[in-house]
Every structure is written in structure tokens, then in C-alpha cells.
Specification:
Layout lengths: L1 E4 L2 E4 L21 H7 L9 H8 E5 L3 E3 L4 E3 L5 E4 L26 H13 L10 H30 L8 H11 L3 H28 L4 H22 L1 H14 L10 E6 L5 H8 L17 E7 L2 E7 L13 H12 L2 E7 L9 H15 L4 E5 L2 H5 L12 H8 L5 E2 L8 H34 L5
Keywords: GTP-binding, Nucleotide-binding
Protein name: OBG-type G domain-containing protein
Organism: Oryza nivara
Length: 463
Amino acid sequence: MRAAAGGRGFLLHPRPPWRAPATPPCPPPPATATALARRLHHRRLPEGILSTLERGVSTLHLRRWVHSATCGVTLHDISQAEPVNGAKSDLVQKHEKVGAFQRIPMVMPATDILMSAQRKSRNVPPTKGIANIAKRERNKGAKQLDALMKEISVPLRTYTENFPKRRDLHPYERSLIELTFGEGYYEKVIARVDALRKKINSVGKQHASVCAKSLTKREAEERLSEGRKKLEEAFEHGKWVIDDLVNIAKTLRSMPVVDPHIPTLCLVGSPNVGKSSLVRILSSGKPEVCSYPFTTRGILMGHIVSNHERFQVTDTPGLLTRDDDERNNIEKLTLAVLSHLPIAVLYVHDLSEDCGTSVADQYITYKHIKERFGDRLWLDVISKSDLLDKKTSSEFDDADDEVGRYRRFGPECAIRVSVQGQVGVKELKEKVHQLLTSQMSRIKAGTIYQETQRTDDNAPGQT
């Protein structure tokens, strides 16, 4: 078709239907910031975009689908700035959190798994429409063996996949696993459960295949019976690993959860100095209180609610006077809390020696812990002050050295408390509230700092 325009002739062709190409042909190489600024200075770019380019953007891609007579070109409507510092986004940054133990799946006892699998597999019918008796029987046998195999192996696979990997846990929870079960035991049990699953799958597939090749109804029934027997024997032989997993799940789920975002008071000291008694008067926790050492054999939790604010309190096992590499796992639980959780320390001293640990040994342990964790917010408490008041002055006639001063006065600014006589309890509660309020401010400041750091790391132009 020919038309006239301004005295000149040209051809008009019907416009072909437009489709965006799957892959844009011959995309131009990314332009540098300076070159792109010179080339596009006459276009209306978003305000401030060129200053952004000059400051820290290595490339800018402008994309829009444009149709021409020769090709389809791809240009972005939205500018995409690529950081030059290689900072990771929040989507790939991994933040360690506690509470993984409470998400552990419930583990069925081995007997229940087998009984459920047997019941469900026996109810599996043959495929409909098979008229031949032998074919129908071997079909049913193969399907029932396959169902028995799956009903046993699927729960095992669920456990191995949903129990947390140790490397993904918070350092505090990793320490709890190691100190509770021993080095490598947790991983070994998970691996044994997975090995049992693989064994069940191997035996089940083998006998289902054999049953599917039966030539007569009787042969199919015999092979079905034999397959069931072999599967059940394989499971019975290895079911003890499921019992181990049940015990691990129960133990881990019963462990207290310490929320690192809530201010936490950690009571530390030698065995039987009165930590558990103080937990009982300070919080909702009700630990066992006895007159013998190592009453506390785990991390016990309580909570304080004051002025509509909620705080946490942990009672930890007592520490003996010895090097860290000589401590037992019960003592190491205390060190795990101090090392891996953002806590405030309430250190408890018994200068009456009613706890069974000498003042000199208590001082050595206190000095070691104070030097190692002195950056934490700290409050010293001298417990059993009613017993201390009954001692005569002659009992404190030590040489004028560090231990002697510690025996007479305790640490500087320590609060004297007697739970039995209700001495100093009110002052202790006030000091604890002040300490935890300061701890809350410290946690909030740390959270703000981390968020600022993540924002700065992901911001364009940072090096």
C-alpha cells in the first residue's frame, strides 16, 4: 500500500504482532557510571540518581521493553544499583537464635511405629481390575510390602531431617548438647537412625521385587509372609536407636529456653552458697533447696515481673576451685551460660563457710570468674549473713591480705542478705531491678547497633 506524506511516497506495511523475545538479542554491555551520565544527561532521570552513581554504584541498568522494526530491546524501568563492596543482604545473613529444642518433632516409640506400619500395610488392597488370581495376589503382596517399608521409613526420615543440625544451633545450645550427651553422641544417634531407614528401604524393595515376580497365588502369599518377617526382623534389630532418639528428644525439649532479647540474671557461685534460695525469693522459679552441694545439676529458669516488665533468672550449678579443663560437665553448664548468653551476673558468696567451701577457695574461684567475665553487669551478694553475724571477731583475725579482707568484708559494695531472717531482701530486689533495667538498655543498644551495621553493610557505595 502506498500513501503520500508531504509530497513523498512511502510504503505502509501492516504492523506484525509484537512479542517480547525470550532472550534479548545482543544486549549492550553495561555502561560505566561516567559514560552513562554523559550519554543520558539530556534525559530526565530520577533526582539524585547521578550523585548516587558517582558515590558507590559500579553499574546502572535501565530496562524497558521497546519494539522496533529490527529487534526487541530490554531495558529496566527500575534502576538497580550493584554495591561494590560485596555486602550480603539480610536474606542470606544468618542470625543465630535460641529455641531450636522446642521445635524438635515428637518421636514415636519403636513399638508404636512398627504396630502402626503393620496395621496400615495389611489394609492395602490390590490394584482394581486384575482378574487373574495369581497376578492379583502378587500385586497385593508387592504393594503391602512397599507400604510396610514406607510406613516404617518415612517417620525415620522425618526425624533425621527435622532434628536440628548441630552446626545450625546457637553456641549456647551446641554447648548444652555436648555437655549433656557427650561429644559426638547426638550426631551418632541421628546417623544411626538414618542408617536404619536405609536398611529398611533396602530390605523392603528387595522383597517387594521378589514378590512381584511370583508365578502362583501360593508363592505370592509365601513371599509376602517372608518379606514381612524380614522387614520386621531388620527393624527389631535396630530399633534401639529410636529409643535413644526418644530420650534425646525428651531431654532437649525439657531444657529451659533463655531468650537473649530479655534481660537475664544469672546466679553464680560455689556449690551450696544459697543461689537456689535467692532464686526462689527473686522469681517464679522453684529450684530444689537442700543442704548439700551440687543440688542444681542443670540450668533452672525463673521469671521476674516488675513494673510490667518481664525478666529472666537462671540458677546455675556451683563452681569448684579448679582449672576449667578439670571441671565436670555440670560446672561447664555454668560457663556455657556465662560465655554464650547476654546475662547480668549475681555472684553469691558464703563467708560463713556453711556451704562446705572455704573462704579462700571461694575467693580464688570468684577472682577467676570476675577476671574472665568482668565485662558483664555485676552484683555481689553475701548470703547467710545471719550465720555470719554469729561469728566472733577472733574468727576473722587473718593476716591483712586479700583473702583476709575478703573474709571480713566480702567484695566491694556487696549486699548482705539472709533469706531466713529476711535481711537485705528488699534492698536486693531493688538492686536486681536496677541491674536488669541497665541490662535491658544494653540489649536495646546492641540491637540498634546490629541493625545499623546491617543497614550500613547493605547500603550502596560502602567499601
